[in-house]
Amino acid sequence: MQTIVSIPHQEYPATVRDLVEEKLQHLLKFNERIVSLRAVLTREADEHRVELVATVGHGVTLVVDSRGATLETSLADSLERMRRVLTRHKTKLETKSRRGGRAGH
Questions:
Q1: Helices in 6-59 by DSSP H: which ranges?
Q2: CATH number attached to the domain at 2-98
């Protein structure tokens, strides 16, 4: 799995990049079909924004966005949201394959 951490205006120390990459690796256990994960960290005035983009097999792209007063809260919130989205996507695929793979039948 490829991980990319983007900090456009370099507002955070270098250790933040390592921390975010480590936390992104943990998301792999919720969906093993993840091809790549990208995190974009930005700071807008007094607000921290974390956007996570996951590319999953067959060209599916899942996106979550979180804003908060601190980087830690917005990162934790976006990781929890991505965990739920990945789990829901995996469950949806498993349910679909158990029904024969054809939606609507």
A1: 14-26
A2: 3.30.160.100
**What pLDDT sits at residue 100?**
61
- Which is nearest to 50 in space by CA: 11, 88, 14? 11
* Pair of tokens at residue 11: 């507002």
Q: Say if residues 69 and 17 touch (Cβ distance below 8 Å).
A: no
Q: Are 20 and 38 in contact (CB under 8 A)?
A: no
pTM score: 0.86
Structural domain spans, the chain: 2-98
pLDDT digits (tens, 9 = 90+) for 43-94: 988 899 999 999 998 889 999 999 999 999 999 999 999 999 999 999 988 8
* Strand, helix or coil for residue 46: coil
Q: Which residue has the tokens 């929890």?
A: 80
Q: Which strands sit side by side in the sheet containing 2-6, from one edge to the other?
A: 2-6, 34-44, 47-56, 60-68
What's the CA gap between 10 and 82, in Å, rounded?
Answer: 24
How big, in percent rounded to 5, are the helix, strand and coil portions of the chain?
45, 35, 20
